[in-house]
Amino acid sequence: MSNPNDSGNNESNIAPGSRSNSTALESARSDMVERQLRSRDIRSLRVLEAMGSVPRHLFVPPEHAGEAYTDSPLPIGEGQTISQPYMVAAMADALLLEGNEKVLEIGAGSGYQAAVLSLLAREVIAVESQPALADVAHERLTRLGYGNIRVETGDGSQGWSANAPYDAIVVTAGAPYVPPPLLEQLAEGGRLVIPVGPAKQQELLRIVKREGRVTRESLFACRFVPLLGRFAWPSPSSAQEPSRG
Ligand code: SAH
Fold first, then answer.
1. pLDDT tens digits for the chain (245 residues)?
2. What is the largest CA-CA distance in the chain?
3. Is 83 a catalytic residue?
4. Nearest ligand 1 atom to alpha carbon 110
5. Residue 229: CB within 6 Å of ligand 1?
6. Predicted model pTM
7. What domains appear along the chain, each with residue ranges and CATH number?
8. 108 CA distance to ligand 1 centroid (A)?
9. When you count CB atoms within 10 A of the terminal residue's CB, does the N or C end of the chain come out lower?
10. Closest Cα to atom 17 of ligand 1
């Protein structure tokens, strides 16, 4: 196995200097695609290619960069996690993206999933409720050159009406129920992929809107950090913080 631990792991060190380290990371990444994705049920070549191209080690804190290509979620600060690679790929797959879509992601976190989606669609608007995470994600995505992603700070359980409707919406935190604004902001033919259920375990749902009606399909069981907001779980602090800006 390659050892991504000796990469230096400094995000600003990505380029030419560390050729052997970046080769090791690239091989860890292609192993991830083969063993965790292709050998399971991820069939879309576009999704496999996108997963093989985004440098996940640059989206996790330096102390976790060595584990970036392992089969698990990782902490990203503020009590949040970057999802397991398989989950990112399965959600992208479920959105059935062909390349020309406007996508809304709720729960930008590290920005990793937005980066993957940005390679599969025309435009990604990624909403994150925690300003500290949104700032880091925005700065990172800009530095890495992902030009078709906008990071917005706010409560994504209300969607992001300014740019609606969306061809695809993905929610990367567990919701107690499907937030009505997300259904409203879905375009005709649009897909919403969202984990719904109790805090400890949810079902990943795909909801499709056609002629104003929705159909829902349950994909598999999963477990996500909670979606906190107006049309979601109540915030653990006594009062909901008003959104900034
Ligand atoms: N997709 C992310 C990981 C998401 S973890 C990645 O690739 O790194 C879930 C994220 O949802 C957390 O960052 C959390 O702060 C955020 N979140 C929780 N409730 C939210 C809400 N109502 N609106 C927007 N983001 C929310």
1. 334 444 444 444 444 345 677 888 999 999 999 999 999 999 999 999 999 999 999 999 999 999 999 999 999 999 999 999 999 999 999 999 999 999 999 999 999 999 999 999 999 999 999 999 999 999 999 999 999 999 999 999 999 999 999 999 999 999 999 999 999 999 999 999 999 999 999 999 999 999 989 999 999 999 999 999 999 999 886 444 444 44
2. 54
3. yes
4. 8
5. yes
6. 0.90
7. 83-222 (3.40.50.150)
8. 5
9. C
10. 107
